[in-house]
Design brief:
five-stranded parallel β-sheet, 8 helices, alpha/beta, 12 strands, Arc Repressor Mutant, subunit A, single chain, Rossmann fold, elongated, 2 domains, 234 residues
């Protein structure tokens, strides 16, 4: 069983020796490591697998590091932190990397300990930001800055009231929230008739629990509602 706070890292590096050295060092430090030896494989893994941080070489076969970084940021709308590796140390090279969305830079050769420290700093900042601006339950993500909601990578469209209910339930996960408390949060002291909440909950459930995905929203009849990950205990 891995530590829940273990850092998941994707290494995209075409030098087999360097990739193996980085992977061995980071795994010994408790990281969960994936490795890609070319840009095409790296892009596929970055888009299809969740990672806390990416170590990305600038010079890669298939798709170079700058192009991969740009496609992650623009096409995939990924915000995962990216640390670029390069043998080129000029300011123009660094500016190009930052311009495509890189978050940090290391020039080869580098100390593995410095790489570890930089990756931990990037991950710490990202996780702190997520705690402030993002709610997450399993694969359901609610961005509190943009009010965008997605489940399993698909963006959902929600009316204002179901969205407000969802925010409350996600903040309280995995606790049961009573009907009266939900009505108070949405309508204050003047809730509409008893069917109104049921209608909004149906709208919410239809959006976040589509067929084929494990249900996250649960009804406790006569009591209230609960939003929890499939493997969470009540």
């Amino acid at each position: 069983m891995h530590d829940a706070q273990a850092i998941s890292v994707l290494i995209v590096e075409d030098s087999q020796d360097l990739a193996a050295n980085i992977a061995d060092y980071l795994e010994a430090k408790g990281y969960l490591v994936d490795v890609a030896m070319d840009g095409v494989t790296g892009l596929h893994l970055a888009v299809t697998q969740p990672h806390d941080v990416i170590v990305l070489d600038l010079m890669l076969p298939g798709i170079d590091g700058l192009t991969l970084c740009r496609r992650l940021r623009q096409d995939a709308q990924s915000s995962v932190p990216i640390l670029m590796l390069t043998a080129r140390a000029t300011l123009d090279d660094k500016a190009a990397g930052f311009g495509e969305g890189a978050d940090d830079y290391l020039v080869k050769p580098f100390e593995l300990r410095e790489l570890d420290l930089r990756l931990r700093a990037l991950t710490r900042r990202t996780r702190a930001g997520e705690n402030l601006h993002q709610l997450k339950v399993s694969d359901l993500i609610f961005d509190l800055d943009t009010f965008s909601v997605q489940r399993a990578g698909q963006f959902l469209t929600l009316p204002a009231v179901p969205m407000k209910i969802l925010e409350l339930l996600m903040k309280r996960t995995p606790s049961v929230v009573r009907r009266r408390e939900i009505e108070q949060a949405v309508w204050g002291d003047s809730p509409p008739d008893s069917d109104a909440l049921r209608v909004h909950m149906h709208t919410l459930r239809s959006a976040i629990d589509p067929p084929g995905l494990p249900p996250l929203l649960h009804t406790l009849r006569g009591i209230g509602y609960q939003l929890k990950a499939p493997d969470a205990t009540s």
